[in-house]
Amino acid sequence: MTTTVIDNIGLLVTNDPAFGHLTAERRDAALVIENDRIAWIGDSRHAPDADERVDAGGRCVIPGFVDSHSHLVFAGDRSVEFEHRMAGHSYGAGGIRSTVAATRAASDDTLRTVAGRIVEEMRAQGTTTVEIKSGYGLTKADELRSLVIAREFTDETTFLGAHVVPGEFAGDPAGYVELVAGEMLDACAPHARWIDVFCEGGAFDVDQARAILTAGRRHGLLARMHTGQLATSGGVRLAVEMDAASVDHCTFISAADVDDLAASSTVATLLPGAEFSTRQRYPDALRLLNAGVTVAIATDCNPGSSFTSSMPFCIALAVRELRMSPAEALWAATAGGAAALRRTDVGLITVGGRADVVILDAPSYVYLAYRPGVPLVHRVFDSK
Ligand code: NIG
Ligand code: FE
After folding, report:
1. How many A from CA of 300 to the centre of ligand 2?
2. Pocket test residue of 305, 306, 307, 314 for ligand 1, highest count of atoms within 8 A of CB
3. In angstroms, what is the span from residue 137 Cα to ligand 1's centroid?
């Protein structure tokens, strides 16, 4: 057993719901890590001895980020598509198919290397929990290997066979829905915790999404959804009906959708990196927060619509563009992400909880938005 004390913490964000206030902050604090758990939290001047002492030097300490939405198992490059968008072209779901072709052609090792590199990037930027989706294979074998590779990096794996209808099923979308909800799901379910559908024009409609999510739930998978990225649809209502843990994007949603979310335990996960990289309007975070909806922020890291692995960047966007307060944005990127994954053991710093702890090279988390684009992660303690 090894123990580490981190003392001289200028500002400690615990997110501990027992303290009432959102981010539950303490000043001049210390904490003790015993193996992979938090064993003690208190005033720095009362910090006990430990095998190792880390002097935080007055810096801010926060829970590791929980990135609850990413697509890391892919091959290929879409920088030219991004360049075209920046020149005025609009984003459509069809670009996904070019990544599907590159992913199918890639070896397992290539896919593993790409995903591994991005997971490392994420960790260097303070992410200690990540969800990874399949969705660029779209055959039984390619979705299965995508999930097997994703599982090498996280237990939070999501089957997204319903990302788009692949080219070979262009004339038979119903046949593809049958495949996803049948044979493909049978093969993939043992390697996934979640099932997701992209419910949007150009992808899957509400009835197709319902059929796929219902089949997934019969296999013991929990539901989450992509919807409202490009237009309003019935997707949010379906997510609530399916008791989805999270409905992601929520850029285009109706007043009824906001009411439905507020009355449910479904989290609205906002992905401002996607709006940044597709030059679309940002979601209305304050409308959701004011209605009492639980809001999370995630990167949506993928080669098409949001090729960032940086939760600090997404926090900066949430503050600058979504008008969330720095505290709301930080909470959404930690405890909010945990709620979106129905986890109570991550996204907070509490005695007995996991030691997923980030020391920022800053006196407060406000700097995450105040100094955008600057690497502010001083040290990461990761319980895994
Ligand atoms: O979340 N919306 C669907 N899926 C991704 C985009 C994937 C892509 O363009 O390759 C998203 O933005
Ligand atoms: Fe996504």
Report:
1. 5
2. 305
3. 14
Q: What is the pTM of this model?
A: 0.97
Q: For residue 297, which of 323, 328, 266 has the smallest C-alpha distance?
A: 328
CATH architecture of 65-340: Alpha-Beta Barrel (3.20)
Q: How far apart are CA 35 and CA 198, in angstroms?
A: 40
- Which ligand 1 atom lies nearest to the CA of residue 249? 1
Question: Under the phi-then-psi rule, with left for phi > 0, alpha for psi from -120 to 50, and beta for the rest, what region is 256?
Answer: alpha
In 125-254, where does DSSP find H-type helix?
140-151, 173-179, 185-188, 206-218, 235-241
- The domain covering 3-64+347-381 belongs, at the CATH homologous superfamily level, to Urease, subunit C, domain 1 (2.30.40.10)
The ligand minimizing its distance to the Cα of 227 is: 1
In this prediction, residue 92 has a pLDDT band, given cuts at 50, 70 and 90, of: confident
The set of residues, in sequence order, having a beta carbon less than 8 Å from that of 153 and lying 6+ positions away, is: 72, 115, 116, 119, 130, 132
Burial class (CB in 10 A: 0-12, 13-18, 19+), 229: buried
Other beta carbons within 10 Å of 302: 27
Ligand 1 pocket: which of 68, 200, 229 to mutate (most atoms within 8 A of CB): 229
pLDDT at 281 over 90: yes
Residue 150's pLDDT band (boundaries 50, 70, 90)?
very high
Residues 129 and 345 sit within 8 Å (Cβ to Cβ): no
> Which residue has the least CA distance to atom 12 on ligand 1?
305
C-alpha–C-alpha distance, residues 181 and 175, integer Å:
10
Q: Report the nearest-CA residue for atom 1 of ligand 1.
A: 300
CA of 53 to the centre of ligand 2 (A): 40
Alpha helices in 57-107 (DSSP H): 79-86, 96-105
- Read off the pLDDT of residues 317-353 as tens digits, 9 standing for 90 and up: 999 999 999 999 999 999 999 999 999 999 999 999 9
Domain edges within the chain: 3-64+347-381, 65-340
Q: Which residues line ligand 1 (CB under 6 A)?
A: 95-96, 99, 198, 226, 229, 274, 300, 302-306
| Residue identifier of the C-alpha nearest atom 5 of ligand 1 | 305
113-131 confidence digits (pLDDT tens): 999 999 999 999 999 999 9
User: Residue of the nearest CA to atom 9 in ligand 1?
Assistant: 304
